[in-house]
Design brief:
The chain is mainly alpha-helical and about 60 residues long. It is about 30% helix and about 0% strand. It has one domain. The chain is elongated, with a radius of gyration of 26 Å. The relative contact order is 0.06. Keywords: Signal.
């Protein structure tokens, strides 16, 4: 591959990464704490069992 083409591809890749905000993590970055070490994310309703919709159940003479 010619040097000019390789340089152009490298520049295009750098611009594309910059356009989407891809940046390396800082040197002192750490992973978040373990999953069991705090409250669950989101509202409590997300962790409730699903509700039964009467419209979708078999009732009467009709069978789904």
């Amino acid at each position: 591959m010619p040097r000019a083409v390789r340089t152009l591809l490298l520049a295009a890749t750098a611009l594309a990464c910059g356009a989407v905000g891809v940046v390396p993590a800082p040197a002192g970055a750490q992973l978040p704490p373990a999953a069991g070490s705090g409250p669950r994310p989101g509202p409590a309703i997300l962790y409730a069992p699903p509700v039964v919709a009467p419209q979708l159940t078999n009732a009467g003479i009709w069978r789904a």
